[in-house]
Design goal:
By secondary structure, the protein is mainly α. It has 4 helices and 2 strands; from the N terminus they run ββαααα. The protein starts with a strand and ends in a 17-residue tail after the last helix.
């Protein structure tokens, strides 16, 4: 096919250009009414695909941020509970005053004491005031988040299915009717008159 040239019936406005308003000039003839109808269908498909993708992305990004917050809460609870478990071991280590006994105790419990030191840094950073940590509140919040994530995932499923179907249709249209695919026409912004 020779390079298509877009000719508009009326001047371009700030409105979105609809594919049904565009005619392709090929040699000495223009698109037939059937071809213009097909352009409108392809354009409508593209617009609907963009709309569905936008809605899907909105729900998906919301669910993603909730999953991240829920994961952070889970990590916080695990770390704080492990920190509490290791605290008596560290307290005992702190109460040993004799150097050799302290070194021996440290060698015997090195992994746990190193883990306690890491968790201590985490706890101080997360909760400068240790009384702020409330496991029950965090778990309640995590349950609420997980419930909201489930609701969003239920809303996402129809969008995923429709988006997949529309992308398949879009691919078939582009494969079967390459001349209707704006990406394959070689049309540039300079060709719009």
């Amino acid at each position: 096919h020779p390079k298509a040239k877009i000719i508009r019936k009326e001047p371009i406005t700030d409105d979105v250009v609809s594919m049904s308003d565009i005619l392709f000039e090929r040699g000495d003839f223009y698109l037939s009414d059937a071809e213009r109808s097909m352009l409108k269908i392809v354009s409508d498909l593209e617009n609907h695909l963009e709309k569905i993708a936008s809605e899907y992305n909105t729900y998906s990004s919301g669910a993603r941020s909730l999953r991240k917050e829920s994961g952070e809460i889970g990590t916080t609870v695990r770390n704080m509970e492990r920190y509490k478990e290791l605290q008596p071991l560290h307290d005992k280590y702190s109460r040993i005053f004799f150097k050799k006994a302290k070194e021996k105790y440290y060698r015997e419990h090195k992994a746990e004491l190193d883990e306690w030191a890491r968790l201590n840094r985490f706890a101080r950073k997360k909760y400068p005031d240790p009384s702020q940590y409330n496991r029950q509140e965090l778990e309640t919040r995590q349950t609420e988040l997980n419930h909201r994530i489930s609701e969003l995932e239920e809303l996402i499923i129809p969008f995923q299915e429709e988006l997949g179907m529309l992308k398949d249709i879009q691919w078939l249209v582009r494969d079967l009717l390459p001349e209707l695919d704006p990406e394959n026409t070689g049309v540039t912004a300079d060709d719009i008159t």
